[in-house]
Every structure is written in C-alpha cells, then in structure tokens.
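HOLO CASE FILE
Compound: adenosine-3',5'-cyclic-monophosphate
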Amino acid sequence: MNQRELVIVKPDGVRRGLIGEVIRRLEAKGLKIIKLRMIRATRACMERLYDIHKGKPFFEDLVTFMSSGPIVAMIVEGDEAISVVRNLIGPTDGRKAPPGTIRGDYALSIQENIVHAADSPERAEYEISVVFSPDCGEF
Ligand code: CMP
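Model generated. Tokens follow.
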C-alpha cells in the first residue's frame, strides 16, 4: 500500500554533513522525496513533534537537542514507506543498530541518532502537519 512517511535529518546529521547520505539511501531504495524543508525548529514545535514522549526523563534534553541547529524535514512516499524507512534507519540506539542501517553506520548515541521517522501512518500525518507548519521555525 502506498504510504507517506515523515523523515527528519536531526541537528547532528546536518552538522556532520549527512543530509545527502540520508537522501541518497532513501532514493536508492526507490522511495520518492515529495516535499522537503530545512528549518531551525523552535522548542515549542519540537515539543509538539515529540508530544508522546512528554514526561519521559529524556524529553527536555531531546527538545533542546532538536532545536539546537537546523534540521531537514521531508515527506517520503512509496509502497509500505513507513516500515521500509524504519528498516533503513534501524533501531533507536545507534550503539545497537545493525551495520547497514543509517543509525548502525553513523550513530553511537541513543539521542544523537541522525534521523527521525514516524512510526505509523497516523503519526506521519500528525508529524507532517507539525513540522511543515509555518510556525515550526525558519532557516
Ligand atoms: P526518535 O526516533 O526521534 O524518537 C524519540 C527520540 O528521543 C529518539 O529518536 C532519540 O533521539 C531520543 N531519545 C533519547 N533518549 C532516549 C531513550 N532512552 N529512549 C528513546 N529515545 C530516546
């Protein structure tokens, strides 16, 4: 089934020059980038993005990190895009993510793990509305 997925290159990925590498891997797989935006997100916007983690011990650090520098948000489309993207990215903890995945190849941290992707079609649509809203931030 055709799906839309939200992918974000996080501030660490942008700082390390990995925007192109993330996009290359998504496109090499056959997924289409149908919309793309680079912004310096506000704290308020990142609190909305991560609303499901509010109250968890890592929430404040996560919001600070995600608003610490520019991010690249994109809408990625393709057959079963949600599970395909999540398999390309690998598990959250970069130390445990297998080689061959984006996090497995580039991340050594649970927080600074290069990319974010939504985990369901409903979350993808919610998160797309959050990060592509004009008030999420500007570059
Ligand atoms: P992400 O897939 O964007 O979803 C939530 C983010 O919180 C996660 O990637 C990490 O960047 C960050 N995070 C920090 N600590 C933790 C933790 N202990 N468990 C899960 N996510 C964490």
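CASE NOTES: The helical segments are 11-15, 19-29, 43-49, 59-66, 81-89, 102-106, 121-131. The first helix runs from residue 11 to 15.
CLOSED: yes
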